[in-house]
Amino acid sequence: MRNVVIGVVVVAIAIAAGWYARTYLWRRKLRRKQAFFGLPQNSESLLVVNRDAGGPDLMISRNDVFALLELSALIKDCGAHAQLITHDSAQQGFGERTEFCVGGPSSNRRMAAHMHSLLPGVRVNTEPDPGPDRGAFQIGSERYRMEPGITEYVVLARLTAGQGREARPVFLFCGQRAITNQAATRYLAKHHERLTRKYGGNSFVLLLKVVNSQAYGPDVVELVADVTRAAQEQAPAPKNSHRAKQ
User: How far is Cα 190 from Cα 112, in angstroms, rounded to an integer?
Assistant: First the structure.
């Protein structure tokens, strides 16, 4: 009987230890995720949306809706809450609440303001006239042109505006098309643990390439470069253009 009791106690201790270890690891993982996104339990965040470039001010494109759903899931996983606001009603500073800003500067005034203040080295061609440079990015001395449905670029940034590690970050998803915004949110959701290990609470700016979206949608994304330094400096005259090979 004593051996049976000892066996039961040992099993109970092992189960309790395993449960405690799993709980500890889950909580530590959650705390890291909350710290990276600036979303402690029950905190508030902002989802700043743009407008469809071909529609009225309050129309949101289908792919941007999908991007917001990706971000909403991340926010919910952190135990935080989100407030959805339009780009032209976000008249407030940053650092108090985490902000997720979606859309290019031509359709999102908030994005245009952030890029002007925080990313002076990134310029976006917002001219409506068709041409090879329509929607092109210039980052530093490099120019990145898009070929719709084949090769498209998006800037993914986490910025704290020099306010220190305790400030709530601003996340920017600035793509050449709406589908690239969705691709960037999906990339962030998939790779946030790796980004946490690499950057911690520091700012970063990544240039991503969305490959063959007409066939694969937002799923095939390649990291082109970490352009943090170039994006935060004033942009010089462009030297090189990047386009997909014919």
Answer: 26
Q: Per the domain annotation, does 5 fall within a domain?
A: no
Any domain includes 22? no
CA distance 210 to 220: 6
Give how many domains the chain has, as a whole number: 1
| Pairing mode, strands 170-175 and 98-102 | parallel
**Each residue of 70-100: pLDDT tens digit?**
999 999 999 999 988 887 766 667 778 899 9
Angle at 132 between CA 129 and CA 135, to 5 degrees: 65
pLDDT tens profile 29-47: 889 999 999 999 999 999 9
Are 103 and 173 within 8 A, CB to CB? yes
149: left (phi over 0), alpha (psi -120 to 50) or beta: left
Spatial distance between the Cα atoms of 103 and 85, rounded to a whole number of angstroms: 13
pTM above 0.85, yes or no: no
Q: What was the pLDDT predicted at 246?
A: 39
